Amino acid sequence: MTANDATLSGVSLWDHGWLTSVRSSPSPNFGPRPSGSAISLAVIHSISLPPGQYGGPEIEQLFTNQLDWSAHPYFEQIRGLEVSAHFVIRRCGEVVQFVSVLDRAWHAGRSSWQGKDNCNDYSVGIELEGLENHPFEPAQYDALATLLRHLQAQFPITQVAGHEHIAPGRKQDPGKAFDWTQLQTMTAWESSMFPPATTQA
Questions:
Q1: Residue 174 main-chain phi, psi, to 5 deg
Q2: Selected catalytic residue, list 58, 60, 127, 129
Q3: What pLDDT shows up at residue 12?
Q4: Residue of 60, 50, 124 lying closest to 96 (CA atoms)
Q5: pLDDT value of residue 43
Q6: Cis link prior to 174 (omega < 30° from 0)?
Q7: Quick check: 85 and 45 in contact, CB under 8 A?
Q8: Cβ–Cβ < 8 Å for 62, 83
Q9: Which of 57, 84, 123, 191 has the fewest CB atoms within 10 Å, counting from its CB?
Q10: Could you tell me if 3 and 75 are in contact, meaning their C-beta atoms sit under 8 angstroms apart?
Q11: Which DSSP state fits 6?
């Protein structure tokens, strides 16, 4: 990784909160961040639609309000849901961006981290295509570590947590199979940036 992680061959990787090196698929499901909010937290989620099925267009359709609710019985349970994340990392490692990091994506819901509520206000939401408590692919860890380094080079990211950590008892993703120690090693970040119960001394 070069000293200036925010540039690639002299060209900025960021354009108004959009990472120019990945595919964009703009979502209508976002709003403004509160004035003066520092973007300090990255929240890791997992998602698959239908649950446990990978590779289809359904995640992108959900985040862009184009999902056919009648296409699968499970979709009736989430009919009308309007949600988003800033990024999705597919099983193959492809990264897709849905919301500018400068804006507030709708990914965390009722949440709190280190005594600070409403994590959507100050976090970046990153969805991994997968099922909670099921292993993720090496390509996803590679893409996630690179994405986190790009984010920290541009924004004051000081913490990384799972949805399960900011909404305990309500959410369980990315789950026990997510390797936090591997992510810490790949980013070369201090263990204090990660949930304490998930890292090794």
A1: -80, -10
A2: 127
A3: 80
A4: 60
A5: 98
A6: yes
A7: yes
A8: yes
A9: 57
A10: no
A11: T
138 prior amide bond cis, ω within 30: no
Is this structure's pTM higher than 0.85? yes
127 is catalytic: yes
At residue 71, the pLDDT reads: 96
The pLDDT averaged over each successive group of 10 residues in the chain (201 residues) is: 40 91 98 96 98 97 98 96 98 98 98 97 98 96 98 97 97 96 97 76 35
User: ∠ CA(186), CA(191), CA(196), 5° rounding?
Assistant: 125
What is the pLDDT, as a whole number, of residue 196?
82
Rounded to whole angstroms, the Cα distance separating 14 from 105 reads 17
Query: Do residues 50 and 101 make contact, with C-beta atoms less than 8 angstroms apart?
Result: no
